[in-house]
Amino acid sequence: FGFYEAGGNPQLPIDIRSVTEGAPISNFKVRIKHWREVSPATLRDIQTRSGQQDRTGWDDKLPDPRSVSIFALEKDVRTLTIPAKWDQGSIETAGIPLDQGSGVYLVEVESARLGKAITRDRKPMFVSAVAVVTPFGVHMKWSREGPFVWVTDLETGKAVKGASVELLDCAGKSLKTGTTDQQGVVQLPGAKAPGRCPTDSYLYADGFFAKVRKGDATSFVYSGWDNGIEPWRFRMNTGRTASDLRYHALLDRNWLRLGDDLHVKFYVRELGSKGFSFLSAKELPTRALFKTLGGKTAATFPIQWNLKNGTAVIDWKIPKDSFQGEHVVELETSKASSTPLTTQVGHFLIGDYRVPKLSTRVQFTSTDADGTVRPVDGRVPLEFSLQYLNGGLASDTPFKIRAEWSAAQATELPNYEGYSFNRGDVESEKVVEIPEDEVEPGEKKVIALDEMKRLNRDGVFTTEIALPKNLKASAYRLLVQFEFKDPNGEIQTISRFASVSRNKEFIAVNVKRNEEDESSGKAQIEALVSDIQGRPVAGREVEMHWLREDYLSHRRKIVGGFYEYESSTERTPLGTICKGKTGIDGKLICESQAKESANYLVVAQTQDSAGEKIVSHD
Predict the structure, then answer these.
(1) What is the pTM of this model?
(2) Predicted pLDDT of residue 516
(3) Element (H, E) at 148
(4) Residue 345 has pLDDT above 90, yes or no
(5) What does CATH list as the number for 505-617?
(6) CA 507, 513, 517 angle in degrees (round to 5)?
């Protein structure tokens, strides 16, 4: 089942292939019946008849449904022939012409040879399909006031004005009629909610059927065909609500102390097809409730609504003996109203808290435009300052500073998608993997500072953190923490992360394998050198070597008669792949040939303009 755009030469494609070597290829018979307009019952019957030939769980006592023509009792059926003009063993795509104008086409192809080969009774086999030819795209959406139908032109995508639309139920009874406006939309108010049609097909389960006509062109849509415009694709709320009312509570604060004043302003609106509207006095909630999460009512207030703008205001002075913790705000309506009895519209927290008195500022003074911190003579300059929120410097304030280094996994540059730069070197020896339950998770870290310090008279502290000597990496991640006592009595901790690169250039290595010839062991290895702005560096001397990596694992017995696995990785150096200088694109490309099937690592290294070694692997 499919839709085809009218105009030009619409054709239903069919793929035909001869799978028996040496067998003659015969012509195919095609039968076509066309309906200019269809009713819901006719369309369901057409689709049901076409689907009968796809069923495989047939009764052995009945004829094979694939050998029964759907046109056995039909009249006004047109017959065509598809000539055999393709080579033996190839797939030929032929087009079945749908040239009788817009409408519904039921198409059936007959094959005597296919039926003789696979049907139970060895009679000719039939394959069918349903096609709709139309110049219109039709969408139907259900709203509170009734269904909307939107008609557009398939060729231009523009709205179709003046198209007549008729709404029918699943029995074909006409319910509403209308004409599309300038936007190609027609609203059909007053129609009841769609029921369920007597069909086993989910495509026709909903009970609204809309027919569209303009001139000789026709189209249709079922109310269940609503995947064309799906709200979730536009991040719209698709949840259903039992009411068209929308409530909102605007609180001046969401965290209050015992004894504070809570000010709440309520808004209530009714949602309709034309937007929001105000409610009448009988429909509005009558009381506001403040409750704990456990359901205990803390306070109740009658509401005096402003009918002109649909708002109400309530002030509550929180008693000193109130429950602390999270509270909810609810609106309550009388039972005679059609709106829900209670509706939760907001929440707030009652508890003690302290307002900070100090503001902080942490700055890495040698930072590039991209946010990367550059060491100066092997050290990272850092500045930390405190000042009072109401003005003034926090002179001579004591604090504790902690600094921690860790190796960065890789550097990504926006100009080179798919490349990971400065991944570092690999150990060419046996590396034992300790079981996860015996070590703390995380990467190797080096503590650089853990000291008590004091701000100067200007409320500022400056220092320089040296790069780690016992952590091999081209790029690092620096974590700095400052701990100090706020005048409000609380201990505050401020953390900052920084990406630190010790090199002025980056190198990446990329191994490209030929998927069609993986068994040959051939691979193209590419090294790329770039500066910190992402520009290629030409003429840089690069050396690439490789290692074989073997993963070993064995089971060993431990205390208590239990077993655990001990794993290790062995890397064996295999020598240099190639050496050379990068071209104008910053790349050096080499070919490699592995002698046996295994896992291999490629390491590329060079020196930046400052003479620092940079390494990466893949």
Answers:
(1) 0.46
(2) 46
(3) strand 146-153
(4) no
(5) 2.60.40
(6) 165
Distance from C-alpha of 533 to C-alpha of 355, rounded to nearest angstrom? 43
- Fold designation for 358-419+433-501: Immunoglobulin-like (2.60.40)
Give the SS3 label for residue 153: strand
Fold of 245-350: Immunoglobulin-like (2.60.40)
Q: Which residue has the tokens 């503001």?
A: 359
d(CA 188, CA 212): 13
**Domain map (residue ranges) of the chain:** 2-134, 136-234, 245-350, 358-419+433-501, 505-617
Q: The tokens of 274 are what?
A: 């034309």
Q: Is 505-617 the same fold as 358-419+433-501?
A: yes
**DSSP assignment of 55-108:** -----TTSPPGGGS-TTTT--S-EEEEE---S-TT-EEEEEEE--S-SEEEEEE
> CA-to-CA distance for 500 and 378, rounded, in angstroms?
11
- Is the pLDDT confidence value at 265 over 90? yes
User: Contact 173/192 with Cβ under 8 angstroms?
Assistant: no
Distance CA 384, CA 399 (A): 10
Q: Report whether pLDDT(127) > 70.
A: yes
Annotation: CATH topology of 136-234? Immunoglobulin-like (2.60.40)
What are the beta bridge partners of residue 605?
543, 615
Domain spanning 2-134, CATH architecture: Sandwich (2.60)
Rounded alpha-carbon distances, angstroms, from residue 37 to 40, 41, 71, 160, 173: 10, 12, 19, 19, 15
- Which tens digits make up the pLDDT trace of 169-224? 777 778 888 999 999 998 888 776 666 665 554 445 556 788 888 888 888 887 77
Side-chain half-sphere of 230: how many Cα atoms within 13 Å? 5
Distance CA 73, CA 187 (A): 40
DSSP 118: H
Which two structure tokens, joined as six digits, stand for 241?
């609500």
DSSP characters for 325-385?
A: EEEEEEEE--TTSSS-SEEEEEEEEE-------EEEEEEESSB-TTS-B--BTTEEEEEEE
Provide the terminal-to-terminal Cα distance of the chain, rounded to the nearest Å. 49
CA distance 99 to 608: 70
Dihedral sign for Cα atoms in the order 534, 535, 536, 538? negative
- The residue-averaged pLDDT of 96-104 equals 85
Place of tokens 């109401």: 390
Q: Which of 461, 463, 370, 471 is nearest to 412 (CA)?
A: 370
Strand order in the sheet with 398-407: 445-454, 398-407, 475-485, 491-501
Q: Count the helix, strand and coil residues of the chain and give each as a percent rounded to the nearest 5.
A: 5, 50, 45
